[in-house]
Amino acid sequence: MTEFLDLFPTKLVHRHLDNFEEPTRDLIKLVREMEKANKSLTTDYRENNPLEYDRAGPNWLRGEINHTVIEYLQSIGIDYAVNWQIHAWANINRWGDYHDPHNHPHAYLSGTYYLKMPNAIQKPTRQRSDVRPGCITFYDPRTGFNMSSIRNDPYVDPEFTVLPEPGLLMMWPGSLMHFVHPNLADETRISLSFNIVLKWSDDYIPRQ
Ligand SMILES: [Fe+2]
User: Fold this and answer.
1) Which residues pair with 111 in a beta bridge?
2) What residues form DSSP beta bridges with 102?
3) Residue 109 C-alpha to ligand 1 middle, in angstroms?
4) How sure is the predictor about 37, in pLDDT bands with cuts at 50, 70 and 90?
5) What domains, with CATH codes, occur in the chain?
6) Which residues contact 38 (CB under 8 A, 6 or more apart)?
7) Ligand 1 center to residue 195 CA distance, Å?
8) What is the 103 CA–ligand 1 centroid distance (Å)?
9) Cα(120)–Cα(11) distance, integer angstroms
10) Which residue in 19, 39, 62, 110 is a FRET match for 68, CA 20 to 30 A apart?
11) The pLDDT of residue 42 is above 90
12) How far apart are CA 193 and CA 114, in angstroms?
């Protein structure tokens, strides 16, 4: 018997949330209120969790994130109770703002929910053709795996890029490197990122 095994997978969730418009408007309002209160939203991210507010937008998004975590855990075969906290923070990216390649230490999962994207993604006219303003790129964690790839094998592209839309929720292992491309529009790009931090239990220790 011959088996072809798929080893060392990387699971990403890409989910368009239903009926996102109204709760998302409330979240945008909240994020703007927080910014007006002089909070440094992204760099002081542990102080300013927008999901700690008890109001329509945060209550809705908390539920959607929790639901997605449960589905993610089921999809990778975790069939016992897991408890977590959501540590969230907001990002308002103005012209030129970006976030260089990074991962999220101590997070089991990380994710982003997209609240608002610039309407017109303006590509600068005399720029390189691979400029992808406002996108997010994820990198193959197996560094160098594309080195000897040949046409049609699954390892040709060492990156995966998404142009988000409002209402999109993405989630991935916290260790996965990702890059938020510069916003090259005059309009803001607003998102809410989060870490899923596990409340420890000895049940999590692998039985090998
Ligand atoms: Fe990130």
Assistant:
1) 171, 194
2) 178
3) 11
4) confident
5) 13-202 (2.60.120.620)
6) none
7) 9
8) 6
9) 30
10) 39
11) no
12) 9
Give the Å distances, CA to CA, from 160 to 121, 138, 157. Answer: 19, 5, 7
pLDDT at 124: 64
pLDDT of residue 45: 60
Ligand 1 midpoint to CA 169 (Å): 13
- pLDDT for the residue 166: 98
Ligand 1 centre distance from Cα of residue 1 (Å): 43
Q: How far apart are CA 167 and CA 163, in angstroms?
A: 12
Non-local (6+) Cβ contacts of 77 within 8 A are none
Output the CA 46–ligand 1 centroid distance in Å. 14
Contact between 63 and 20 under an 8 Å Cβ cutoff? The reply is no
Q: What does the alpha-carbon distance between residue 199 and residue 157 come to, in Å, rounded to a whole number?
A: 35
Residue showing tokens 């999109």:
168
Nearest partner of 185 among 141, 136, 146, 133, judged by Cα: 133
Handedness of CA 176, 8, 78, 82 (dihedral sign): negative
Ligand 1 centre distance from Cα of residue 4 (Å): 33
Are the C-beta atoms of residues 105 and 197 closer than 8 Å to each other?
A: no
**Placement of tokens 């923070």 in the chain:** 89
Sign for the CA dihedral angle at 74, 76, 80, 82 comes to negative
194 CA to centre of ligand 1 in angstroms: 8
Distance of CA 143 from the midpoint of ligand 1 (Å): 19
